[in-house]
Amino acid sequence: MARAQAPDPMTADAASRLIEFARSCKAAIRVVSMYPPSHPNIQAALARMTTAGASATAGGPMVLGVMPDALLMDGRVLPKPDSAVNELAALLHGHHIGEMTIQGSLTAGAWHLLLSLLATSPEEIRLKGGIMRAWQSAGGGPVEIREIDYAEVLKERAGDGDSSWSSLIDSCLMGDTRSALDEKALASLLEIARDPDRLGEFMNRLQERARATGQTVEEQRQAVLRLLQNLATFALERFPDDFDQIMTNVATATTRLDADVMLALLAEPPPQAGTSGRVESGIDLGGELRARFNEEQLGAFVAENVTRDRGATGRLAEAFNSLSATDDQRRTALLLAEERVSLSPLGAEPQFNEFWAETVSKLMSYSDADYVPDEYDRELSSAREMAIELEQVSDDPPDRIAAWLSTVTDNDLRALDQQMLVDLLRLEDRPEAWEAVLELALTRLEQLVLVGDLVLARELLEAIAGVAADPASPFAAQARQAMSNLTTGPLIAHLLLFMRQAPDDQMPVLAGFCQTMGPGLIVPLVSALAKEESRLAVRRVKDVLISFGEAAREPAKTLRDSPNPAVRRAAIEVLRAVGGAAALEDLRSLLADTDPNVQREALRAIIQIGSDEAYAILEEALTAGEPRAREAVMHTLGSISDERAAPLLVHILTHSSSRGAAEPIYISAIDALGRIGAGTRGVETLERLLRRGQWWAPKRTARIREAAARALRACGSPAADAVLDDASSTGSRGVRRAAAEAMLLPRRPPPAGGTR
Questions:
Q1: Is residue 175 assigned to a domain?
Q2: DSSP secondary structure letters along 60-116
Q3: Domain for residue 586, yes or no?
Q4: Within this chain, do residues 43 and 164 fall inside the same structural domain, yes or no?
Q5: Residue 388, domain member (yes or no)
Q6: Which residues fall within 8 angstroms of residue 91, CB to CB, at 6 or more apart?
């Protein structure tokens, strides 16, 4: 048959403008669907969208022709495909937009209105009369939308009522042989099948009509099977060159089917070759579908069924696993499905994250093929048709019903599911079965951490850790590897999210979970902490690292180089707590930190270590360090009111020089010792300085004596007062004068609760 001529490629400049417009539009649609209008992310996305729209229309109106997987601009196609353009085309096509013309610049408000409509599910928009009517009702703007009515298009092409959609659907539902579909009907079906969206819509209407007329699931299956077998046979015999594309479109269209009907198609054995009639020509319909289902189609199928049924059913899980070949394909498909469902009304519900976590868990783990026969499973699926009749049965009294319902709450079912997993991890002895249980447990564990349920997550983790620690278990090595793999996946990000949001009373649960994970959690936690901005999360990660003891010391060293001062302070606390005296060298460099709070914490940590080596480091910083470091240390010493600093000050006053530039530092140390309230050793040191004289430096001697006398008076202790009283009468003239002047100063009040 004749083929349409391919469109000419657009220029490089036009392609660049279209790609930038598509990327801005896709990003803005996602942001608009997630945030309220006043959110900063909305404003940023709309600003970018306004700029991209103005650029796209700078040379005149931009006319976009919409195809199922591509956009034409002024009738020309991109030189090479672009994923953002293809995704935007699919989104517009889903809203039945055939052409969109942007005639001029839109304001941010107009873009927000249009993008909000595009972010709404096509089904919801169609209830409002379609995208074109919704845009016009909202006020519209310099954007013209042409919407395609596929049913009308089909009628126009067919030319008579016998081949209308209604007649075609009746033909598919009325019999079980090829005779119900004549050549004209098959030609019309083939025309529909050249567009996967049209075929999907047709099959949707076919299912709706079947349900409305009271057909069973088996009868619906037969109707869809009859439709697709006849279509595939007709395409193969009449247009063999188009057969592959037609079947690819069929695969895309079947993403709109119910899971029950999809399973029936997949389970249908290929007709035997050699029998009469074209329906039995040997086409393996299930095999053709499996061969053509990719991650995007699989995600669309899941999203369609989850949105319609408000959750994942067992039949959907079975169809999902039957259509996918690998776990990687399943995970990718579920990510795509999550994006689609998040744009539906379900995505706006408060518990969406928990709902989706349960959906993923069921789809990634569910399998009843080994236990439930197909015939019985179909009966279970068709039982939903009796729901209204069952609800009308009221044999049981309300109190009995209430008591029964109380045993099947979400929490009860979740607890039972959890207990089953824990028991299987401990009791299963078949290698393949245990490995499958382990994979399910790991997925569930990550989901529980994501939704903040660390109590249940820890139960699963303890079960895995118990196997890992059991030398007699044949699965110990697998369990240890699984726990190691957890730290390289999304678990760390989930834990940090928990630390940012959880109340303080949940921290013991967090600590227990992290201890069960073991030291393997340290390095990834340190790596995540180095980039963490939340002060609350930094503090909580710091506490977790400290709980691991010496094992956290080496990894924590890397935190000293973090650009975040809060992280550097956390590093100081961790190093001091787990390293003790061995951390002194690690703390030395932080004395010269550019952030005064970091300097102060480093000094406090060294003071708390309190060894001669610690004092030597501070003395070196005071005497030989850079001026900035010396000033920082003395400023910090001058603000310290911790009595634990007294030994350091005594050490400085005993071993340091008071000459030249060191004199201000020396006198500051005397003042600090008096301020924190020196003990016996401190009073003895101050008395020695008061009575010490250097005849070759009388002015410096006088200044030091005055500082020592003031410090003794500031101490406010009986021992310090006694030293001043004695010095005022028995010392040299300079000592007596300094002591007498100090005794005129106000005494330091005693500490609350008693005398010093």
A1: yes
A2: S-EEEEEETTEEEETTBB-SS--HHHHHHHHHHHHTTEEEEEE-S---HHHHHHHHH
A3: no
A4: no
A5: no
A6: 26, 29, 118
Domain count, the chain: 3
Same domain, 328 and 350: yes
Q: What would the two tokens of residue 63 be?
A: 């006319």
Domain hosting 302: range is 153-382
Q: Which residues pair with 99 in a beta bridge?
A: 65, 146
Nearest one of 730, 708, 732 to 720, comparing CA atoms: 708
| Same-domain check for residues 115 and 171 | no
Q: Which residue has the higher pLDDT, 180 or 428?
A: 428
- 708 closest CA partner among 695, 693, 696: 693
Q: What three-state secondary structure class fits 10?
A: coil
Average pLDDT, the chain: 76
Tokens of 197: 């969206």
Model confidence pLDDT, tens digit, residues 350-380: 778 888 888 888 887 755 444 445 555 555 5
Q: Which of 219, 197, 201, 198 is nearest to 210 (CA)?
A: 219
Angle at CA of residue 444, ends 467 and 369, nearest 5°: 90
Q: Are 215 and 206 in contact (CB under 8 A)?
A: no
* CB of 699 closer than 8 Å to CB of 724: no
Domain boundary pick from 148, 169, 203: 148
What's the CA gap between 288 and 302, in Å, rounded?
A: 19
Integer angstrom CA distances of residue 272 from 111, 227, 604, 679 = 57, 18, 85, 102
User: Which tokens is 200 given?
Assistant: 């999907």
Q: Of 113, 148, 183, which one is at a domain's C-terminal end?
A: 148
Q: Assess whether 262 and 342 both reside in one domain.
A: yes
Residue 675 lies in a domain: yes
CA distance 303 to 626: 64
- Domain co-membership, 261 together with 144: no
Q: Under a CB-based contact definition with an 8 Å cutoff, are residues 71 and 102 in contact?
A: no
Are 159 and 136 in a shared domain? no
Does residue 400 have a pLDDT over 70? no
**Cα angle, residue 232 at apex, residues 228 and 238 outer, rounded to 5°:** 140
The beta strand positions in 122-189, using DSSP E, are 143-147
Q: Which amino acid does the sequence have at 360?
A: V
For residue 173, the model assigns a pLDDT of: 56
Q: Select from 36, 93, 47 the least CA-distant residue to 70.
A: 93
Q: How many CA atoms, within 13 angstroms, populate the side-chain half-sphere of residue 43?
A: 3
- 165 with 313, same domain: the answer is yes
8-state DSSP, 481: H
Which strands make up the sheet holding 70-73, listed edge to edge?
70-73, 62-67, 97-102, 143-147
Question: Are the C-beta atoms of 647 and 615 separated by less than 8 Å?
Answer: yes
- For residue 270, the model assigns a pLDDT of 62
Same domain, 290 and 175: yes
